Amino acid sequence: MSTPTIDTLESTVEPVCRAHGVELVQVRKVTERGSLVLRVMIDRPGGVDGASGVTLADCQAVSRDLSPALDVHDVVGGAYRLEVSSPGLDRPLVRITDFERFAGKLVEIRTRAPWPDARGVERRKFKGRLQGIEGEAVRVSVDGADITVPHAEIAKANVVYEY
Predict the structure, then answer these.
(1) pLDDT tens digits, 42-59
(2) How remote is the C-alpha of 114 from its chain's centroid?
(3) How high is the pLDDT of residue 70?
(4) Could you please report the per-residue DSSP string of the chain?
(5) pLDDT, tens digit, for every residue of 5-54?
(6) 64-79 burial, b for 16+ CB within 10 Å, e for fewer?
(7) Which residues contact 25 (CB under 8 A, 6 or more apart)?
(8) Residue 132's pLDDT is what?
(9) Are 149 and 109 in contact (CB under 8 A)?
(10) What CATH number is given for 96-159 in this structure?
């Protein structure tokens, strides 16, 4: 089988997560020491202050049921190591709904290409208070001024834990 796309992997992983009452946050394929590692991040919405309610037992259960599902559907196409985890304190924001759910939180965003800040200076990294979404764009207050970035232009985004 050819190299699987993230969309193909997500279509197999998502139903297993739903069956366990958790949501799929992210699927990543990485190579470590010459071996393929499939990293699946899960969350249970409604945790305290947006925190994950995922337990070790949740991760174990999803891993136990996901491994055979991936093998039966042959979506990985070879040997791999499966890792299932919770998102942690610096939870990635992947889907547009994540940006809506975590409005009000401090976030770091990295864009695919340079993007203008409120002063018109182009840069790729922004840190500010997430304001929410406007259609398919994300609004963030950076240095006291709001900027709007199309969701498709965001390469990486994470919640920043505030002590």
Answers:
(1) 998 765 455 568 899 999
(2) 21
(3) 87
(4) -PPPPHHHHHHHHHHHHHHTT-EEEEEEEEEETTEEEEEEEEE-TT-GGG-----HHHHHHHHHHHHHHHHHHT-S-S--EEEEE---TT-B--SHHHHHHTTTSEEEEEEEEEEE-TTS-EEEEEEEEEEEEETTEEEEEETTEEEEEEGGGEEEEEEPP--
(5) 778 889 899 999 999 999 999 999 888 888 889 999 999 876 545 556 88
(6) eebbeebeeeebbeee
(7) 41, 42, 43, 87, 91, 92, 94, 98
(8) 93
(9) yes
(10) 2.30.30.100
Length of the chain equals: 163
Contact 107, 75 (CB under 8 A): no
Q: Which CATH number fits domain 6-85: 3.30.300.70, 3.40.50.1000, 3.40.190.10, 3.40.640.10?
A: 3.30.300.70
Closest to 76 measured CA to CA, from 64, 66, 86, 87: 66
Q: pTM of the prediction? A: 0.81
CATH 3.30.300.70 location in the chain: 6-85
